[in-house]
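Posting this for the archive.
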Amino acid sequence: MKIQAVLTITGKVQGVCYRANAQTHAQKLSLTGWVRNMPDGSVKVVCQGEPSSIESFVTWCKQGPPAASVRSVNVKKQPLEDEKLFDSFDITG
């Protein structure tokens, strides 16, 4: 059963290739969704996939790419009911 997670990542996460690295990692885990920079300096992710893949992704997000300095990762998980799944994992915004 697939789930959805919404993540808000704070710290030095913009201007350090966080989104591109997150996209690559999410694709390796067969996750779908998106990642984007937010006006407040955080990065937001919505991802859908198997719970174990999402757990692996969250673990990666807490570290991020080498140039990042992650302060916190807020995670909200919810089951997928009749929601349309994303077709890919994209960088938006």
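The domain at 3-82 is CATH 3.30.70.100 (Alpha-Beta Plaits). The CA atoms of residues 3 and 81 lie 9 Å apart.
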